[in-house]
Amino acid sequence: MTDVPLTIDSPKWDVQKEVIPQSGDQPIINSSKADPEELDKYVGLAVENNASLVALTLDQQGVPADVERRVELGAQIGAMAMEGGLPMDRLFIDPIILPVNVAPKEPENVLGALQQLKLLSDPPPHLILGLSNVSQNCAQRPLINRTYLVMAMTAGLDAAIADPLDTDLMNAAITTELLQEKAIYCDSFLDAHRMRG
């Protein structure tokens, strides 16, 4: 149906093990926790199938409450990926953002984790977030998502699970990349970006 890489989003090992080998070229496994036994299986599956892997800074104790634990789990993920033969350019670490209305310190903690996770290796792993989690059950969700995306991109975020049909969100992302010198300015930079395909 498509020649773009597919992301298989399931927490079930049996689903991933069955579907990833049938998912075309360079699929993305979403996702594994930082649990060593689970992560070892998923790294192996990714290597065997030329896949990328999203790994969450999440362990048996749940979502970390601070920057340090997120970075510690991210470092464990990175080390296991390298030991298992998964290149850093195929590893996406998700430091997990919680809703700002129930965890007001979390947006800042995640930004701190993003900055430090970028320093794990050379080249570094990719950093990803489920962006809409930050605004779950909040008023002004698009505004919160858009603002946090820009903040996270300046802290090192490479990818986001986001609504590509939200024009304001996409314009904010494109403009942030322009201001980070990832694109060259022209008056029609928004159109130019979209024409890249």
Q: Concise description?
A:
43% of the residues lie in helices and 13% in strands. With 197 residues, it is α/β, with parallel strands linked by helices.
Question: What are its keywords?
Answer:
TIM Barrel, 6-stranded parallel beta sheet, 7 helices, 43% helix, globular
Mean pLDDT: 95
Query: Which fold does the CATH topology of the domain at 7-137 refer to?
Result: TIM Barrel
Spatial strand order of the main sheet: 1-2-3-4-5-6
CATH architecture of the domain at 7-137: Alpha-Beta Barrel
Low-pLDDT ranges: none
Shape: globular
Bin the helical content. Answer: 40-55%
Number of strands: 6
CA radius of gyration is 17 Å
Q: End-to-end span in angstroms?
A: 18 Å
Quaternary arrangement of the chains shown? Answer: single chain
Structural class: alpha/beta
Q: Can you tell me the CATH superfamily of the domain at 7-137?
A: Dihydropteroate synthase-like
CATH class membership of the domain at 7-137: Alpha Beta
Strand content: 5-15%
Elements, N to C (H/E): EHEHEHEHEHEHH
Please give the largest β-sheet: 6 strands, parallel
